[in-house]
Amino acid sequence: MKHFVIFNIGQKFSLFFVSLLIFLACERIAVPSYHTVVDAGYSGTPGKIIDNSPTFATIGEALAAVPEDNESPFIIFIRKGRYHEKLSVDKANITFLGESRDETIISYDASGDSPDPQGGTYGTWGSFTLRITAPDFRAENLTIENGFDYPANAAKLDDDPTKVQNPQAVALMTDAGSDRAVFRNCKIVGYQDTMFANAGRHYFYQCQIMGHVDFIFGAGQAVFHDCDIVSRNRRRKNPTGYVTAASTPIMYPYGFLFVDSRLVKESPEIPDGSVRLGRPWHPAADPSVSGSAVFVRCYMDDHIGPAGYARISSRDSTGKRIWFDLEAGSRFFEYASYGPGAISSPDRPTLNEKAAEWYTPDQVLNGWVPPGTD
């Protein structure tokens, strides 16, 4: 009888051990498999297969490994870390999937005056950290940052030869070729000209976008849904900032739509009423531009005041400076704003209920349904 008991105990242990091995094997198999993995701490051979995925130390290396004719979603998983890289995505169907919105950071620190390796300076168009020039790009759970130190530069004396005179510094840019770009749970961080949404359709969901001067600008069509639009302080300046500078072509009925989002401030020291909702940017004084930025059911903190908009100037091909304001046909409106900055003012045009029905994500995106929202 004793031997029989021992045999059963051993049998049960064997069965448990076998079950454990099967469980561990299944867990091993269940390790997520991505097309590539980027790990800032990786020091091995670029592209070595680890946990079923080619692994790289930089995002640029991972992008180079994407087939030129890529036709389906190609997921690049980016682990926590700070990636000091200046990147252009020119292949279709790329997904950047971060491990953590706050700890997966893509950052570069170029401004408009930074030297361009190809000659001259970058200018606004070349100052980007991340530029998208291909369709169906997606980013999720990460931060895109331009690390140029605007406050430190602004604190320098005007006669300081090291002071940058063109402090525009783009974190994210979409350019010709981009369309159907999705950003979900991302932070986009900078100061002046943070996000240059200049081409195609965009959908931003539960994102945080930070800046102060014209920090959401460009000619593209974009929906900002359930996002935090965070104004940063620009000391000793009034206005302290401008949220948008849309340059929507007049042929397009829609530009930027902010829906169920929140316009808040980074610091309580930003004065009440010191931020404008937008300016009607006309690149090169182009008369065929009529900027559109519409805010629907958005919370407005007290940094937004009765003077909702401001004029802006551009130089034409002859160098002549021309000023543009809202009376020149710009399409800036609000509907059902609320909060301490939701101030009724003749300088803040509003939509009635019937007109507001035309400003929906479906209308702006023109038949495109972003993945995960249908």
The number of helical elements comes to: 6
Sheet of most strands:
18 strands, mixed
CATH architecture: 3 Solenoid
- pLDDT averaged over residues: 91
By CATH's scheme, which homologous superfamily applies? Answer: Single-stranded right-handed beta-helix, Pectin lyase-like
Structural class: alpha/beta
Overall number of strands: 27
List the helices and strands and how they pair.
Layout: H1 2-29, E1 36-38, E2 48-50, E3 53-56, H2 59-64, E4 74-78, E5 81-84, E6 87-89, E7 94-98, E8 104-108, H3 123-126, E9 130-132, E10 138-146, H4 150-154, E11 172-174, E12 181-189, E13 195-197, E14 201-205, E15 208-211, E16 213-218, E17 221-225, E18 228-231, E19 241-246, E20 256-259, E21 262-265, E22 275-278, E23 292-296, E24 299-300, E25 312-315, E26 321-324, E27 331-335, H5 353-356, H6 361-365
Parallel strand pairs: 1-3, 1-4, 4-7, 5-8, 6-9, 7-10, 8-10, 9-11, 10-12, 11-13, 12-14, 12-15, 13-16, 14-17, 15-18, 16-19, 17-20, 18-21, 19-22, 20-23, 21-24, 23-27
Antiparallel strand pairs: 2-3, 25-26
